[in-house]
Amino acid sequence: MSRPGRAPRNTIDKESMNNAVNDVVWTGTWVAERLGVELVGDERLGELLGLALRRNPKRAHLLVSNVLGKHVPQSPSVVYGHGFALGRRVRDLLGAEDARAAVVVGYAETATGLGHSVADGLGVAPYLHSTRRPVAGVATAGGFEESHSHATSHLLLPEDPALLAGSGPLVLVDDEFSTGNTVLNTVRALHERYPRERYVVVALVDMRSAADLGRLEELAAEIGARVDLVSAASGTVRLPAGVLEKGQALVAAHEPAPPAPAAHGNAAKAVRVELGWPRGVPDGGRHGFTPGHRIRLEGALPAMAARLADALPDGARRVLVLGFEELMYAPLRLARELEQVVAAEVRYSTTTRSPVLALDDPGYAIRSRIVFPAHDDPDDGPGERYAYNVAGAGFDAVVAVVDSVADTPELHAPDGLLARLAEHTPSVLLAVVPSYVPARTPTERPSMLPEPLRGPAFSSYAPDEVGWLLQDLSDVGLEAPTEEREEAIQSGGAHYAESLPVEYQPNAQYQELFHTALADSAARLAQAVGAVTEIVLAERSPRPVLVSLARAGTPVGVLMRRWAEHRHDLDLPHYAVSIVRGRGIDANALRWLAAHHDPADVVFVDGWTGKGAITRELADAIEEFEASDGITGFDPEIAVLADPGSCVRTYGTREDFLIPSACLNSTVSGLISRTVLRSDLVGEHDFHGAKFYRELAGSDVSADFLDAVAARFDDVADAACAQAKELLAADRTPTWEGWAAVERISEEYGIHDVNLVKPGVGETTRVLLRRVPWKILARTGAGADLAHVRLLAEQRGVPVEEVDELPYTCVGLIHPKYTRGATGADGKAVTA
């Protein structure tokens, strides 16, 4: 990372406090003297900053900018000029070519106008600012947290998702760069989804402590990108011990009593000025603001300013243009234009959510405070809002500029902003900028889907092993007896995904068989894991996003993730999603993945193939999703450990052998059930569901399975890499011979329904554990791979028929045309 060097440091001591700017008392004196706070750094710090006390349990002091136009009314030319000059410096730093490719992002709420001014200084850069106002119908392109703020969650809601997807420099603008946490959170969140080679951090003041100075360099090394920093001034704040407690005590001692409730009376009378805002030009950067928008706005500004000037009272000598929270840029540009055409002194500031102590002292930055209720129906509910340094400032007129979302009855109420302003100025004008509404898709969806479920709250896997894009249905009764489910499924009265089988609890003999099978096959499994992972890394993506098909694919996805970490030091994201035969993949899970990763990097993972039904299901579902959502890039090709059906190109082996995770249900899959899709439980905008069987923790062998296989990685590394190399050079075109075999078996055995024929060791095991089996076909001479199948068949009274030249090791046949009358009194399937 490169960064302009800091100027020699200076301490703003008591003498310089009182002579900071033209012999005017420095507006940080009061706080500095009482808290022992010192500003150390550039000589300009005292000119740019004052100090106040926050009403915030996380930080005692507030650096109050004199040139930002938030808390302190300032000449709009000064405010705009500082941002524009920083933009020019960024342009010079980047050079003409990179500056043309740059995108600027500002932080809500304080730096929305500053960031927009920086974008103007770059000249051709599109602009986007974060927001704390969710907008229905607009999908989020990211989010991050600001840990020290009174309101932490930031959203990015570009109308055009491609705005952030370019490879050019990303310029991040905030008013103050203190700990660096906000920027670090932002860069990590965006870089994971939209990696790029260069970032520029811009701030009016760089106030990092010595402990924080190296964090940008560490971030740059971590992500492999260049990170530059541009600021107007730099320094740091020296805080004595116990400053938070002292600050809170000072606030408590000087906080005035709450104002008496406003008497019920007439609403405020403000003169409404019709601006003539240009149609289609956004009110700011909440959804993106392009250079074309800027050209149109600048063409319309003179006429809008003239309308404001005509509405001002005669003889007005001092005028304030007051913006509204995140709406900073539009009122700033209006104020700057008005400043050019009227003789009055024009000042600019905005209202804010930030609670700060007001104290009428020349050495304190916040001299007065106007309190009023929120008037834009905020997502976090009603609350107080503030306008600082307006009361008692001698303004002859105040022009309140709000967007149309905030032009509500609360704004005009007896205790609303307009009425409060009227108590302190003889003339209040209201200018409303139309809130920009991005084009909506025909079917609106929630802008944010929930974050993935993770262990230990959901599943026994470690939280970094897998994120489940599912909803937790653990408290819902979904289990039904196997025979009831089979009859309902075959009669067409229910879909298999609408209920769950009762979880099979293995006896001691079967558990011992599982552990024996695991010990015997761990190396074989590890080699297949290594081979398929190496193929994925070579052919699909150097940093794939593994998305396993829950639940059989999930242990395999975890093992592939472990191989990539063990062999290549890669920390791959891994999620589990639901796919349901006949219903497709969970479209909301795809939307979440597309919102957080490049779809081209997504690799779907499953344990094995049978006849290839899920392979076809996924391909059809992805095609349907692309048509409905317009999101492209997902590759429906599944990566599997074993492909005995010859249905896919990406596999570790095509042998049909025992994968021990097929021997059990939830107790080898993180204690998670098969997925559920039922209309009364899963809404249009919900993830599919599943249950977490916490009560089975005593029988859980999920970690045993993973650890046993991963322990053999070193032993099989050479063989796995050689196998991958051989497969990469081979013709792996699917032949679908498994599907042909299933169709033949279905006809030969008079079943006439391929869905009741389950080929392969894994699928046969599922038949025995979850369905009502009719018979098992075993290839003549099959040995240890079928030991657990023979045991399960014996327990359920199911015949095992040996067959020559069977293309699979075994095939499970579900009882055709099943009714409960087809079982004996003990519930076992008939034998003929």
From TrEMBL:
GO molecular function terms noted in the UniProt entry: glycosyltransferase activity
The UniProt record lists the keyword Transferase: yes
Lineage top rank: taxon: Bacteria
Domain named Orotate phosphoribosyltransferase-like: residues: 48-235
Keyword Transcription: no
Domain named PELOTA RNA-binding: residues: 736-815
Protein name: Phosphoribosyltransferase
Cysteine protease StiP N-terminal domain residues: 459-709
Xref: SUPFAM superfamilies: PRTase-like
Pfam families with a match to the protein in the record: PELOTA_1, PRTase_2, StiP, TRSP
